[in-house]
Amino acid sequence: MSFLGFGGRPQPSSAEKVAAVENELKVVAEMHSRMVKVCTAKCVDRTYREADLAKGEAVCLDRCAAKFFEAHQTISEQLQKEGAQRGLGGGM
What we know:
92 residues; mainly alpha; Helix Hairpins; 0% strand; elongated
């Protein structure tokens, strides 16, 4: 059972909170999987001549991952802004 908290909005139930966390974990896992796939294809030599990453590969992977996370954060912030605008605009 949910009740009205501050601002008159119903509070999410425990099941809703669990579902939200599960959904967020799923999104993060999918993002990680995409990042590994994209950055590996871009940065790692497919001939696998050495057991360890070459210096150039490691640097490339670091930069690729940083850019991937930065892009993901920028997109997430933009989507949150748009969602907040829709939420505020819908009640007027």
